[in-house]
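Q: Give me the 3D complex with LLP.
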Amino acid sequence: MHHFALLDGVLHAEDVPLPAIAKAVGTPCYIYSAATFVRHYRVFAGALAAAGVPHLVCYAMKANSNQAVLSLLAHEGAGMDVVSGGELMRAQAAGVPGERIVFSGVGKTDAELAAALDAGILCFNAESESELFRLSAIAVEKGIRAPVSLRVNPDVDAKTHAKIATGASETKFGIPVSRARGIYAEAAALPGLKVSGVDMHIGSQITSLDPFGHAFQVLGDLLDALRSDGHAIDHIDLGGGLGVPYEVARPDPPLPEEYAALVARHANRFGCRVILEPGRMIAANAGILLTRVIHRKTGEAKTFLVADAAMNDLIRPTLYDAHHEVWSVERRPGEEEPVDIVGPVCETGDYLALGRPMPPVERGDLLAIMTAGAYGAVQASTYNTRTLVPEVLVSGHRFHVVRPAFAPAEQIARESVPDWIDEASA
Ligand code: LLP
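A: Here is the predicted complex, encoded as structure tokens.
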């Protein structure tokens, strides 16, 4: 469910017609619906509460880390899953207290570990023995103990795109479940650590409950073993990964309520607080990418709509063969025809949609690339010296530019040419 809908033939974000935003802000731009973010968070957290699961939702902010979005979710009581010193800084800037922050990631630097210790975070989700040793040493220097979980790789097939599956044994993530007890024993013996939890994350855009169920079973077995080894485990972190509907033609992924019911079935056995790290489920359908058609072009075999948004703005179609629905902001009457919607970047892989049936679209028309609120703006780049596009948050009748454009003039101004440059080319 989201709050982008046609009203009198014009696509709106909540109560704001999209052409009004295009006029005020320009295109392309990302547009987020505050009501949709809040709704998704409440549906997810509410389903866990209704299922009787003692829980903390730590939003995986890598999906969309705009400060306005984080502030909105922090206000709802969300915790945050951070994966870098930068994200930690963002969570703190949004007012998220340390006791609601978990730190994931396979390569945390000493500086990042130290910053998170200073922030008093809830838990470090460690991914290697090497990380445990570093974390312990840094905590000892500070005279404290770091709360730690080990991210365990349950070796399940998440049945998602290979680039975003993380739970199989051949990926770089986590420690193998077969070695977990031994490594937990090592962790417990380190002077700067306090073993407090168990962690997993098996991948993203998962559209069936089976891989989750399998992984929860593996983690439950491990939890029993760890408790019998004498570890005081006070929480289990089940990661994120619940898929969202991108494509009308595909069956919908499980509902948050169904996912929560599955978590609840395992939660009794876990017997501790459950942490969840949803990202996409909260953010994806809360945002769109608004773009204008620069040219309509007929090729030998195809019709192309050349949009002003490109792969640098939304890389998902190019990188993961992802499907995003494309809606005309003001639909023209007439037959649908298949078109390729491409951007201006000089690469064949620069497209937003291929062979997509669309109603008639003319130069100057606005298109909405749907379900772009997660892994959209955060993965954008300035490739081809393009603008990092603005982000806009809508709430009811209001809208606000929550991040302005980062335009070529500013990009150039940030670069520096040494005064010996002529000698270097002599
Ligand atoms: N927790 C950890 C440790 C993660 O690595 C991730 C995502 C999440 C939680 C959140 O997963 P979600 O609920 O959003 O599925 N850029 C890709 C997705 C990469 C996901 C990386 N990890 C895409 O655009 O599809």
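A quick observation: The pocket of LLP is lined by residues 60, 62-63, 81, 104, 164, 201, 204-205, 239-242, 277-281, 316, 320, 375 (CB under 6 Å).
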